[in-house]
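Changelog excerpt

This revision adds worked examples to the README so contributors can see how folded entries look when concatenated. The first example is reproduced verbatim below.
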Amino acid sequence: MVAASSWKGKVKAWEGDSGKEIGCFEGHTGVITIVSWTSDGKMIAAGSSDGSVRVWETNSGKELRCFQDVKRFSHLAWSKDGSMLASKLSNGTVRVWEISSGEEMRYSARNSVIVTGVTWSEDGSFIAAGSNDCTVRVWEVRSSEQLRCFKGHGQQATCVVWSRDCSMLASGSEDMTVRVWEMNNRRRVCCCTGHKGRVTCVAWSENGKFLASGSSDCTVRVWVAKSGMEIRCFRGHTGCVTSVAWSEDGSMLVSGSDDTTVLVWGNF
């Protein structure tokens, strides 16, 4: 499915294969700035300049929730099971809502500002984000308690991602490195060095053995997660790499770039 928004405060959705329109979601009175689906496609959320975030049921178009007083946000992220929605605000705080109850939880980075998007653990128990003090922080969702504060980057983090089993985090930074952190032992596992520009995106392979990263140096690099050893450097983009993703079997990578291309890489 594909969704798009308009300045008129509407979100429209279409089937990806047929192009058939499947819904028009209304309620916002301002320009819609961000749209996000649940992973199963059953719900869609949108944020607007009117200071609200609205959630609709995809099939019926019914509005399920409207969260008010959400001003100047830059990110929406669903938990894996679609039960909760997180929003990062421009003031460096995070708000999380439970869809069924409407309950709200708030998170802050204690005397610093959250600068990356929020990333959910696979089971929805934790969220992680990077702060402008060069740390990577982890909170327990239900209690809003900060559980970890990983230090080591020389400049602020740009992206944070969980391993599949939630035992580790990887973070990319403006310091041109990727660092891997272990949750239980609260330690840095390794530091991946080689990029010549800021790291903009990081992705774990499904088996958790490898990491892929993209950078403003226009390369995609692959690392051994436990040692930080670089095993591949793919060149071909002519602009900053903005996204990377693994195929399910780990045999291929796909990357998107500011050069308006999407490239597929193999030969691991």
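The second example, added in the same revision:
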Amino acid sequence: MQRFYFFIKVFIFYLLIFIFSTERIFAFTQWSEFNLSPSVFWELSNEGSENEVVSGRADQVTPPTFLITKAEYFLPTKDFIWQFDLIPQFGVDHNLVWGFVDNKNYYQLHFSAGALWVNHFIGGQEMLARGINFNWNIGQSYLISISRKNGLLSILVDNVEVFHFYDWTYDEIASVGSWGIKMSPGSVFPVKTILKNNQINKEADESISLIHFWQNDPFWSDDIYDSASLWVGNDRPTISRWGCALTSAAMVLRFHGFSEFLSGEELNPASLNKWLIDQQDGYLGEGLVNWWAITRLTRILSDQAQSVLLPKLEFSFLKQGWREAAQVFLAAKQPVIAQIPGHFFVLNGFDQVLNEFKLLDPLFEKKYEHEHEPIQSIRVFQPSFTDLSAIVVVHDPSVLVKFYNEEQTLIETKEWEENISTAKSMAFTVIEKPEVGKYSIEFITSDFDGELLESSLYTYTQDAEPTIHLIDHQIENNFGSQIIELNFEKNNSSSIEYKNIWESFLNKLNEYFLVQKITPLAKDRITKDVDVLKTTEIQEKYSRYDNHLDLLLKFYQQFNFSEIFQELAILKPIIN
């Protein structure tokens, strides 16, 4: 008798499952269930209409159960935009899935207590996990937009971008699948998730979604920018006045997934300004953001990332053909930083109808290219895991800089000028990703009226670690050129040697003698002393002649040979 009752119970149990399952299959035309569970209940109203409402409820702990769109109604594609309204009705675990192939291969957006996560499961293993702090409320409706373009994943909540990064686990074939809801409550249940106004492959806005930082945001507008108080005094030395390039860089870094520093501090214009100030090469000249220092920051954060895969960003500058290049980058969902005289902003789209760029300006309420002066050039940060090396000379615009290889063949460089607001302009002469070896660098100076100028040579390893050399110039009118030899290394510090200091000096000395600016005795005495100095190895032995040169300068100063004294005075800091 007991066996009879047992079989009756088993029969009724399976009958109920059959009826329950049959009703679901019958009810859902465009959706399918995977991993049926008697503890999970799905409801669907107005199926296929604009007012469609899908909901799932789990009353107890259960293995993951899915409600997924059918391919004949929603064709899986590599690139897509999925937009819907989400209502977490009750419970703390709410999961939206895409790229669903089966219950072991899919992506999910996971709402958990006080956090938001993006996960990718491959073969049942969690291969991607990227999370942020995110406070959400039970019963509140959230507009969610999930888009993917060429592996770039962007997720917005109520039109605010919360994730935007390149998915390094993405595969053009294996990552393509359907969309839906996953029920998998943890220790807190019941859970109910409601999805409304479901739209898949909604027509995209061609603009790239970025966090729009403002340099005059009250949270950091009054922070001292770089060392601006040294060159503008108390006349607003703040981020609000000078921070356009800084703020643009912060927007681009956040776009690529760099949301915080190793300390946990949020990455924004204020924290980025502090980090750059702490670097030996963070700012150049009068407040110019050092783009190569920023590449180093991305390398540091990428190397230290634990649960996410962050790219190292490789910097490049484009002037010729910048317009065509910018359209290519934007089509690939890569924002770029644009420069106009004294100002920087971010290009985040191209309007095909107006045939002009769309932009996010850190200071002005301007949204289109035509509202600004003509764009001069762009700066691009591209994901890379290889070579961040560069040779960078920062110099006065009146100094001409040329590079030669070991065969003394002129090397092509990139040259441009930068300034912010009314600060002094500086020129850049750059070789991006240079080869290891020896380079001759020629500095050609003229028309300076005896002014003392200084150039800075920055060499960056493939990890963007810097070596810095300060170059003082002999700059009397028509003084000629100065050459240094650079021994460039990608994995170690680079070194320099001065080459033609004394030859140039002696040529000038002879000119003074021919026009009778100095006496034969003075010329002879100076020539003999220089002959001794120029035969030594500068980088190792010149310091021993420091006292001798001081005596030489004092000796000839008493004869009031002001011009030749000036030449020697300029040489002294070079040979120390």
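Reviewer comment on example two: The longest helix spans residues 2-27. Confidence is low (pLDDT under 50) at residues 13-26, 475-479, 537-545, 557-561.
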